[in-house]
Design brief:
Layout lengths: L3 H15 L6 E2 L14 E2 L7 H13 L8 H19 L2 H12 L7 H16 L9 H10 L4 H17 L5 H10 L8 H28 L10 H9 L3 H4 L6 H21 L2 H4 L5 H10 L4 H5 L11 H18 L4 H34 L3 H12 L4 H18 L3 H18 L4 H15 L7 H10 L3 H28 L1
Antiparallel strand pairs: 1-2
Helix pairs in contact: 1-17, 2-17, 3-16, 3-17, 4-12, 5-7, 5-9, 6-7, 7-9, 7-21, 7-22, 8-20, 8-21, 9-23, 12-16, 17-20, 18-20, 19-20, 19-21, 19-23, 20-21, 21-23
């Protein structure tokens, strides 16, 4: 499979060719910039050439009159990468998970729901995925030692994080990019996504727990029973997990608290409180009181925005500020902090660039003036479709698209410019279109062989991907049905 960069650039080329074929057109818009249904008209063609193709990713970053740039979300992705780099430098997350495992020694079966909930929260909030690779060497011996198998250990972390990504609440790489593309706040639709997270996580926990219970009673029911003896020699002979007592220092506990507090503040900042209820003005009143305090108001800054009105600039600042706070708490040297922050940014550099390249697709479509024409075709095709049918078809559309563009950020940036307005025509909220996209992308990421998370986990556990597909088949069916029902019901409420 070609990389996400190559795939997206090829799509830019294809779209540029289509600007020579598809008639150009435009829609009228209201004062808020929303497209007015039924106002489509054709205009003179503006075919895009080689210059435009190579300029598209550049404009995708900085923006132009027709397309907003992705610079704000790209910078946010880099800064949150730096923040995670600083947190990982303290080893607080690894020690925290290890401490939970140690706490449940002798009651390992209870670890399944506890750890899956923790991993799901990580996936839902900051797109946790590759970070779980460090936990498999710890979880596999623990799960096998009490009569389970390596599949249970893999499922706890892999299914846990991916179901969190499937029902992302404020995941900056999925919810954030999609929301920014549609010019809405990631707080829009948050309650609905929380409900989906609870439903899908419950299904996954039940599925893994049921399988663990079955093979606990009859080990021959294990899908990897044929390699049981080999796995016991491979994993149970390694007692390195026992050598580490995973006792957290006071500083690491404080880092974990600050880590959770950061995401909590971000959520408070993104939820449009006064839009939900005009009387919920506590944050505006508090901010006004704070900035009017002599000296303290000047020290904090008079330009501070109240929680509930934040967007990408404010949450980027939050993660930068909290990185410095963690640096101070851990007494990191300046050089140590910069190295950790830059290493974290480096890990997410490709994601940030992918967002800009993907935005280039929208640039070529808008500059070639074929976006309105495609929307017009979609508007015509949608006539007569119910909202429930539209949103379920949107979910199904995103399943093959997730295979084609495995990057969640790239997929959002490449497609939301079309799917969002189509949802508007079908009278479906933009936030629900985002939920459908996330659900499809997360669903595919359970099984796709192009995922480094999936293939890395299976490689560590020495599990063939065909066995993994066999194990996940029923779970995928259950999740597909649950998601379709959820989306269909949400569309009519």
């Amino acid at each position: 499979m070609p990389s996400a960069f190559t795939t997206l650039f090829l799509i830019i080329v294809i779209i540029a060719i289509l600007t020579w074929i598809i008639p150009a057109g435009t829609y009228s818009t209201d004062k808020a910039g929303n497209i007015i249904s039924g106002t489509y008209k054709t205009v003179a063609n503006k075919p895009q050439g080689i210059w435009d193709v190579f300029m598209a990713p550049v404009i995708g970053m900085v923006g132009n009159d027709a397309t907003d740039g992705a610079i704000s979300i790209a910078l946010f992705i880099l800064v949150i990468g730096g923040f995670l780099g600083v947190v990982n430098k303290t080893n607080a997350l690894n020690q925290g998970i290890g401490a939970v495992v140690r706490h449940y020694k002798g009651r390992e079966k209870r670890l399944i729901p506890v750890l899956m909930i923790l991993f799901a929260l990580g996936g839902s909030s900051f797109g946790m995925g590759e970070e779980t690779i460090a936990f498999y060497p710890l979880l596999i011996p623990v799960m096998m030692g009490v009569g389970f198998d390596s599949l249970v250990a893999v499922a706890i972390a892999l299914v846990g994080t991916q179901v969190g990504c499937l029902a992302s609440t404020v995941n900056p790489f999925a919810t954030g990019v999609a929301s920014q593309t549609l010019n809405i706040t990631p707080g829009d639709g948050l309650v609905s996504r929380v409900i989906l997270l609870i439903i899908t996580t419950a299904i996954c926990i039940w599925y893994v727990y049921h399988y663990a219970s079955v093979i606990e009673k009859d080990p021959t029911k294990s899908l990897v029973y044929a390699q049981r003896e080999e796995d016991e020699k491979r994993f149970l002979g390694n007692d390195s997990a026992e050598d580490n007592d995973f006792k957290m220092t006071k500083t690491q506990k404080l880092v974990i608290f600050l880590f959770g507090l950061t995401f909590f503040i971000m959520i408070l900042g993104l939820i449009p409180w006064t839009n939900l209820n005009s009387h919920w003005t506590i944050f505006e009143k508090f901010t006004k009181w704070l900035v009017n305090i002599p000296f303290l108001g000047n020290l904090v800054g008079h330009d501070i925005e109240p929680l509930g009105t934040w967007y990408f600039n404010e949450i980027t600042m939050l993660f930068l500020f909290m990185s410095v706070i963690i640096m101070a708490v851990c007494h990191m040297k300046e050089g140590e902090f910069i190295d950790a922050f830059m290493d974290g940014m480096r890990d997410f550099l490709s994601v940030a660039i992918i967002v800009c390249v993907a935005r280039g697709i929208q640039v070529v479509m808008n500059d070639g003036m074929i976006t309105a024409t495609i929307l017009h075709w979609g508007e015509s095709g949608l006539s007569g479709l119910s909202r429930s049918v539209f949103i379920i078809l949107t979910y199904i559309f995103y399943i093959p698209m997730s295979f084609l563009i495995p990057s969640t950020s790239g997929l959002a940036a490449a497609t939301m410019g079309i799917m969002g307005p189509l949802g508007h025509f079908a009278h479906v909220p933009s936030s629900l279109v985002i939920t459908a996209y996330q659900a499809a992308s997360g669903w595919v990421n359970f099984i796709t062989p192009t995922s480094a998370v999936v293939m890395g986990a299976l490689a560590i556990a020495h599990v063939n991907i065909s066995i993994w597909w066999k194990w996940t088949f029923k779970l995928m069916v259950y999740l597909f049905i649950a998601i379709c029902l959820f989306l269909g019901i949400s569309a009519i409420l």
